Amino acid sequence: MGGKKKLGIKQMEKQQVTQDEAKQEKKKEKAGPPKERKAASIVTPDAKNDKIVAEIKKMGVLTPYVVATRYNIRISTAKDFLEQLETCGAIQLVSGSHNLKIYKPAA
To answer: What is the mean predicted confidence (pLDDT) over 42-49?
Structure first.
C-alpha cells in the first residue's frame, strides 16, 4: 500500500534539529523593538490655512484615503475636510458616488 514511510530514529532527530533551528531564527527576527502605533487624529486641519491649501493644490488627485494618510487623520474626518475645501472653492469634485468622492485642485 502507498503512504508515507516511517522515518528512522536518526532521520527524526535530524528533522527535529532543523525545526528547532528554524524556530530560533524566527524568534531572532521578531526580537526587534515593538512597533509604535499612533492613533489617528480626530481634529481636522484648518481649511482656511494658506499653507495647507497650497500643499493640497500640488496634489494631482484627492481622495479621502490620500488626505487621511497625508495628515494622519481618520477617513471620516478627511471626508469632512474635503467637503470644507470644496465649499471654500479650493478643490472641485471630479467624480463620486455615495462611497467614494474624487476631487482635483481648482484651477
So the answer is: 81
Domain that holds residue 80: 50-105
CA dihedral 21, 26, 32, 33 (to 10 degrees): -130
On the question of pLDDT at 36 being above 80, the answer is: no
Number of domains in the chain: 1
Mean pLDDT to the nearest integer, 54-65: 90
pTM passes above 0.85: no
